[in-house]
Amino acid sequence: MEQNIYLINGFLESGKTTFIKDLLVQERFNSGGINLVLVCEEGDEDYDESFCTEHNVITKNLESENDFTVQNIKRIAEEISPQQIIIEFNGMWDISRSLEHWDFGQLTEIVLLDAQCFEIYSQNL
């Protein structure tokens, strides 16, 4: 089964979790199947149990960049058989290394930016 994969990227506290939760409450996006959310960083916002139950969400934490591999994601997806996969990516990880051998179905990347912090962050990187 090929799933659509949505990679949500951005700096810490750019609103990734809030954006993903807003997507998952929309009927046109969430058609009732299992939604696998791979969480690659912990921010201020989280996915509480009641939200996950109501919107058919299973979250899995990927603690380090070494856990974010195609093989690991495929293994998790095979265990869960999700309708779609949403990756809350860690903006400090090397995305080119992570996606180098990607052969899933459709991959859509969405990058979120907080305009108030963007200039400071971009200067420091």
Structural commentary:
This protein has 125 residues and is α/β, with parallel strands linked by helices. Helices cover 33% and strands 22% of the residues. The protein has 5 helices and 5 strands, in the order βαβαβαβαβα. It has helices spanning 16-24, 49-54, 70-80, 95-99, 115-124, and strands at residues 4-10, 35-39, 57-61, 84-88, 107-112. A 5-stranded parallel beta sheet has the order 3-2-4-1-5, sandwiched between helices. Strand 2, helix 2 and strand 3 form a beta-alpha-beta unit. The longest helix is centred in the middle third of the chain and has 11 residues, at 70-80. The mean pLDDT is 85.
Q: How widely separated are the two ends?
A: 38 Å
Question: Which of globular, elongated, flat, extended, rod-shaped describes the shape?
Answer: globular
| Strand order in space, largest sheet | 3-2-4-1-5
Helix/strand class:
alpha/beta
The major β-sheet equals: 5 strands, parallel
Order of helices and strands: EHEHEHEHEH
Helix content: 25-40%
The averaged pLDDT comes out at: 85
Number of helices: 5
As residue ranges, the low-confidence spans are none
Please count the beta strands (DSSP E, at least 2 residues each): 5
What portion of the residues fall into strands of 2 or more residues? 15-25%
Radius of gyration: 14 Å
Q: How are the SSEs ordered, and which strands pair?
A:
Blueprint: E1 4-10, H1 16-24, E2 35-39, H2 49-54, E3 57-61, H3 70-80, E4 84-88, H4 95-99, E5 107-112, H5 115-124
Parallel strand pairs: 1-4, 1-5, 2-3, 2-4
